[in-house]
Specification:
Order of helices and strands: HEHEHEHEHEHHEEEHHHHE
Structural class: alpha/beta
Radius of gyration: 17 Å
CATH superfamily: Ribokinase
Number of strands: 9
Number of domains: 1
Number of helices: 11
Strand content: 5-15%
CATH topology: UDP-N-acetylmuramoyl-L-alanine:D-glutamate ligase
Shape: globular
């Protein structure tokens, strides 16, 4: 059952190295602690390489890029791959600027992450540019803009019940093309390794009113994949179910006068209080 993966995180307590953005770094750390893993953050290149060596997995989040963090990401990413540690790429805002898009594409090509997790507009931007670059064999060429609204998905890209089959086919095709797992998160979440696709319907619309729920999920997923054993697809899907279910549980506990800051804390608390049995009972998913 999918709750096993949460129990494995709590049992193994993986150390997760995060090079993430400064807007949500504290929330990412607390979410990783809530699930039973341990976070560490280091983006200075020399420090990042050594820290990566003592960790179990690496989370790369491009939300607030600068030259130092970019260098640190590649240094840490190369070391993680040398050691066989799973690497997750969160391409925050890919399509909003050339720097973000080019950095994400270069990480895909040089580091070869095990998982890419983003919203549908970010993933579509990467798919379009990745395919074009491979066809043209022009790694340093121009990149095309996506349909992002800053770091948010464009509503026109959203995965819905009406276009679900198209979304599943898209997720599988991109996973096959890149050779890594693809997690597309939104109202309906899709997690695919190219062969199978988990379709997940946990979560609340109000989660989009909190800065950093996606960043928190990336940290959570990096912990799950590190602890999940051979079936990394199921582990990644379990992380998505955990986050979505925590959003439901946290929202149920909201009181009059509470707002998005309280909701953020309630989601983290819900993960902290969750166990495998609760996750098995509350997870809403199918495999296609």
């Amino acid at each position: 059952m999918i709750g096993t993966y949460l129990e494995e995180v709590r049992h193994k307590a993986p150390l997760v190295h995060n090079i993430t953005n400064y807007v949500t770094v504290n929330d990412v750390a607390n979410m990783i602690l809530a699930c039973g893993a341990s976070p560490i953050m280091a983006d200075e290149p020399e420090d990042a390489v050594e820290i990566t060596a003592i960790c179990n997995s690496l989370n790369l989040n491009i939300g607030t890029l600068n030259r130092r963090t970019i260098e640190g990401m590649f240094a840490a990413g190369r070391r993680a791959k040398e050691l066989g540690h799973p690497v997750l790429l969160d391409p925050v805002g890919a399509g909003a600027s050339s720097l973000r898009t080019k950095t994400a594409l270069k990480i895909m090509e040089e580091i070869r992450p095990d998982v890419i997790r983003g919203n549908i507009s970010e993933i579509r931007t990467l798919r379009d540019n990745y395919t074009n670059r491979r066809q043209e064999n022009a790694a340093g060429g121009q990149v095309s803009a996506g349909a992002t609204r800053g770091v948010d998905a464009d509503i026109r890209d959203a995965v819905t019940e009406e276009n679900l089959e198209e979304g599943i086919a898209f997720a599988k095709a991109f996973a096959q093309e890149t050779g890594c797992m693809v997690a597309i998160t939104g109202a309906i979440d899709l997690v695919s390794d190219g062969s199978a696709c988990y379709v997940i319907r946990n979560g609340m619309p109000q989660m989009s009113r909190i800065t950093g729920t996606g960043c928190q999920l990336s940290g959570l997923m990096t912990a799950f994949v590190a602890a999940g054993g051979e079936d990394k697809l199921a582990a990644a899907a379990a992380a998505v179910c955990t986050m979505g279910l925590a959003g439901e549980m946290g929202y149920q506990r909201m009181q009059e006068g509470d707002g998005n800051a309280t909701y953020r804390s309630r989601i983290i608390d819900a993960v902290y209080q969750m166990n495998g049995e609760i996750l098995d009972q509350g997870a809403k998913y199918e495999i296609r």
